[in-house]
Amino acid sequence: MSGDELRAIRQAWLLGLGLIAAIALVNVLTLRHDAPKLGVLLPTIWEGTSACVTMCVFAIPAAVALWTFRTSPRWWRAAPVHLAAVTLYSVLHVSGFVALRKLAYAAFTSETYTFGPISTEFPYEFRKDLMAYGLASIIYYLSLRREHRAFVAAPAETPRTFDIQDGARLLRVPTIDILAVRSAGNYAEFLIADGRRRLVRSSLVALEEKLAEHGFRRSHRSWLVNPARVTGLRPEGSGDYAIELGAVEVPLSRRFPETLAVLRG
Predict the structure, then answer these.
(1) Between 125 and 237, the higher pLDDT residue
(2) Which 8-state DSSP code applies to residue 186?
(3) Cα–Cα distance for residue pair 30/132, rounded to 1 Å
(4) Complete domains list, the chain, with CATH
(5) Contact 140, 61 (CB under 8 A)
(6) Where residue 264 falls among pLDDT bands split at 50, 70, 90?
(7) Which residues are CB-contacts of 208 (< 8 A; sequence separation ≥ 6)?
């Protein structure tokens, strides 16, 4: 994952942690009020084990949300993925909290935990897990979109020019006029909007760090592209694209899905 994607996933997970903790606390207090004979220990075990497993299996809707954000699939392609994901989510959630409850009962009580008939208990838990999965997927997806929009907006506040060292001459070029940069052996070639091309003795990796501040993204192992100058995207098959920058075309490899997400905006 890119840095902005990782940040979005982390923020969404922390939000989910807060929601799950609040729901667990409310449920414990409700059970304590409605059934005082239960005490506090058993409701705490029930809700605590469910919450702990939930925060682990939240990785599943996070992965699906990231896939959805990157690829923007049609509903008929996304539906079976979500169905498989929520089924796996529920199976792991139920089996996880049952195992933890058996351990907790053995450690803190003299009773033995029994889940009940699978034919009735699992469908009951699945309905709740379906809602939790759906809510988590929405939170993760919205967090990814928000972080993406913040990233796209950031370049407007960065410096407006970039210095290209062309031999002994320093060429100061408006960032918006730089279409792309490609690797050329021990050099890197700048493609400028007016048709000029300038070679500098530098690796593409070193330039990537500097140009990232201006919003440039890696589109291929040999190319950096300026998203602000993109005029079109053309599918090339197998997940690859051709990026149109006016009369110039730059390859976009399927190995850089985060760049595709940025360009689709």
Answers:
(1) 125
(2) T
(3) 20
(4) 3-154 (no CATH), 159-264 (2.40.50.1020)
(5) yes
(6) confident
(7) 216, 218, 224
